[in-house]
Amino acid sequence: MRNAKPRIAVTSGEPAGIGPELCLRVAREPCDAELVVIGDRSLLAGAPHIEHVPLARPATAGRLDRANARYVLAVLDRALAGCLSGEFAAMVTAPVQKSVINDAGIAFTGHTEYLAGRSSTEHVVMMLVGGGLRVALATTHLPLAEVPRAITVDSLSKTLRVLDRDLRQRFRIARPRILVAGLNPHSGESGHLGREDIEVIAPAIAAACAAGIEASGPIPADTLFVPERVKGADAVLAMYHDQGLPVLKYASFGHGVNVTLGLPFIRTSVDHGTALDLAGSGRADPGSLREALQLAIDLASPS
To answer: Per residue in 196-231, pLDDT tens?
Structure first.
């Protein structure tokens, strides 16, 4: 008889960071899923179900080693293959250290972009959930100077379609209401503070509305998160990383969840980094990983 609990892959992330110890703690706790923690067994001794992927070199807590960069990606690739084959119902990822992967000569922007590329997904959307908010991003890990060029009518239209579809299908919201932030102060002040809100964002919203998506904006970011406004919305679409995420992290840090929308499988992650200064201390808070796991279980379970 098939196990009714979803089988979920948990990737242990950067071996010198807090990911392995957080995975170990969460894996020992009761939950409504069958967890398979993926990583080197030397880092995960005591976890009930481990899939061993060997380190290139023994890891030391708090000390990055570029020799293990390909190990980190091999862990992700194993979880990805299992999700695409149907072996796993979802993937939950502990944090990785982007810098050491790039220092090893491997171009790596982040989990979101890597999983999209490896799964041949045309368009993905990064969304964080926590503190009663869902905040999606029109652009992700870009230098601020590159953001205006990256925002186009086409890219925003795709983002709104993915966001609307996954809110309906994954989050089971019948008619999602999406608030869209402006790019410039005061949404451009009628063009006096920039033309992007008029020439790019507004047309993308109009096209989305014509396609049956309940999107409104562009709304000035400094008033978008007023409680009276966001309580009537199911998600916010921010134009860039540090426009929307500081608000969400203020409301939920340590308990927020990163969700990649648009993938052909469920992927959730923590809202924090590798915390090298805490690695090995036993003081790292597993709250965000617990929340990421619970959301993955909720999304993977039948309605």
So the answer is: 999 999 999 999 999 999 999 999 999 999 999 999
C-beta separation of 219 from 236 below 8 A: no
Query: pTM surpassing 0.85?
Result: yes
Residues contacting 140, CB < 8 A, separation 6+: 109, 110, 112, 113, 126, 241
**Cβ distance 238 to 135 under 8 Å?**
yes
Q: Which fold has domain 1-121+263-303?
A: Isopropylmalate Dehydrogenase (3.40.718)
Q: Give how far the C-alpha of residue 20 lies from the chain's centroid of Cα atoms, to the nearest Å.
A: 19
Q: Which two tokens stand for residue 204?
A: 């993308």
CB 42 within 8 A of CB 122: no
Res. 1 pLDDT band, cuts 50 70 90: very low
Name the residue ranges covered by the structural domains of the chain.
Answer: 1-121+263-303, 124-254
